[in-house]
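USER: For my understanding, would you kindly supply a protein sequence with its structure tokens?

ASSISTANT:
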Amino acid sequence: MVDDAPEQNPPGDEPSSDASDKPAKQKKKGNFWKELPVLILVAFGLAIGIQIFLGRVYMIPSESMETTLHGCTDCYGDRVLVDKVTFRFTDPAPGDVIVFRGPPSWQNDFVSAEPGNPISQGLSWLGSLVGLPSANEEDFVKRVIAVGGQTVKCCDDQNRVTVDGKPLDEPYKHFDEGTPAEQESFEELKIPDGMLFVLGDNRNHSCDSRCQGQGGLNGLVPVGDVIGKARVIVLPPSRWGGVSDHDPQIVSMGAPGWQENVPLGLGIVGAWPLLLLGRRVRDRFRR
């Protein structure tokens, strides 16, 4: 005679969810602490790789780019994201706000003594990951005004910088309150190929190609010393936004008639065949 009653496990053999879950939870917890150092190393590795090859955050420590970039005394200096990729494929152009290594003839007034102990050096390096300047960092931020092959001079009868004899359109130009809105003049200078003439937007509160290395050829910046292009203000939140790269030569060189309309023209040309194709497809479906 067969007993159809279901088998019952002895009390000691019954599965216990609490007993089975506890080792699994402990194992997961233990795995997390083992993996944490690896995750930290990977994060730092990615941060370093991104800053070397793609982009980096820089702090603006001076007033030379007011009001485009804040670095004024007693205020929170802007942190800007600098694109390191663009200039791998093209050279800086007039209007670009660039970060570059100071040439030997340039002097940076914001360089301080190198930290003496390893802990301070480590903290300085960590700070550089979020845009705090390193003690021995000699990088500058200025705007490109003229490039190789062009001739720059200041000023014309309306106190404007000229390139190849034509005045520039500079809406970003700034003069400190209480100071005359007049630019310091400089002699005509032909820019050699591979060099850049740069100025600060705070026109009379910036030591740039006019005065660094006593001006002239010594004040120029080699294209090879350019680190990247300032793209976005990331801190403080109240200043979030893009960094203007208005080309000051566009209006003066008479280019807007065709250059500014190129994107619209290309859009129309590209949209026309798509419109015709769409009509043909629609007519076939109707049939």
